[in-house]
C-alpha cells in the first residue's frame, strides 16, 4: 500500500529522530493541566500559534507598567532526570521567573514555557507541564502556551532542559525599589523551602560527583534520602509578597537566587545606604551545612552560591514588622527580622555573626 505524502514525511522525520505523533500526544496530555492555570483574561485554548491575553483589563490601571522576566532551572534538571521524577521541576521554573517580577510589586499575569528534549516522551513532558501549571496556579498567573522541541543528536533521549518567561503588571505609583528604602527599614527574611534552583553545579560536585553520597542514600540529618532533599521544589512567594506589599509599608524586595543573599539584596539598595544582616537570627536547613562540611567550603563561597535558608527578603517600615510576619504566616511562610538598613553609604550588605548551631 502506498503512503500518503504526509505519512511518508512523518515517517522520514521519525527516522531522523523526531516523533511528531509523540509531540501531539504530549500536547493532549498537558491540556488538562494548562486549563487549570487559566485566568479570565486568557482567550482561546492550547494549540494556537500564540497565547492571547485580554489587555483591556489594564484599563483599570492609571499608569500600568509591564514587567517581564525569563529564567531556567539550571542543572537541577539533571537530578529530576536521574530520579525519573518530573512533576516538581515546574515549581522551580515558575519560582525563578515570577518571583523576579514580584520584587518590583508586579502581579504576574501570564507565562510561557520552553522544553527541549532529546526524545519526546509524552508522559514525561506532561509531568513537567503539570508542575509548571500547578505552580502558575499558586502564583496566580496563567500558563498561556509554550514549546516542546525534540533535539535528537543534541540531547540524549532522557535529557531535557526547561526555560520560561512571564509578564506582569504594576501600577506606576506602587512600584517598589531602591528609591523607597530608608534608614531604619527592617530586613525581613522569608524562609526558603530548601536549596531552590541555584548552585546545583556546586551541590552535585560536592555531594554526588565526589562519591560522598548517592541520590538514594538515607541521610539522617536530612530525615530523608538525598534525592528527595535535592528535588524539594522552589517556594513560590508571589501571592504572599503581593499581599505583603498591599498591607504593609514595604519599600523593596529581593529574590535570593544566584549570587546569594548579600549580592541580591544589594541590587535594591540605594548607594547612599547599606544594610546589616545578623546570621544568628536563623539556622539554615541541614542541607546547607551538609554541603559546607562535605566540600570544606568557606562560608563566603557558600553564601555567594546558595541562599542559605532565605529565599526572599523585604525591606519594610519597622512599625509593620509584626503585621508582615502575620501576613506571611497566613501563606505558611516563616519570616523574621534579620537586620536593618543603615545610613552608611555604599549600597553594601554585610552579614555578621554565625549561624546558630554551626561549627567551624
TrEMBL record:
Stored Gene3D superfamilies: PurM-like C-terminal domain, PurM-like, N-terminal domain
GO cellular component terms, A-Z: cytosol
Keywords: ATP-binding, Cytoplasm, Ligase, Nucleotide-binding, Purine biosynthesis
Gene Ontology biological process terms from the UniProt entry: 'de novo' IMP biosynthetic process; adenine biosynthetic process
Pathway(s) where this gene product acts: Purine metabolism; IMP biosynthesis via de novo pathway; 5-amino-1-(5-phospho-D-ribosyl)imidazole from N(2)-formyl-N(1)-(5-phospho-D-ribosyl)glycinamide: step 2/2
Major subcellular site: cytoplasm
Name of the top EC class for this enzyme: ligase
GO MF assignments: ATP binding; phosphoribosylamine-glycine ligase activity; phosphoribosylformylglycinamidine cyclo-ligase activity
EC annotation from Swiss-Prot or TrEMBL: 6.3.3.1
Name the UniProt record assigns to this protein: Phosphoribosylformylglycinamidine cyclo-ligase
Gene designation per UniProt: purM
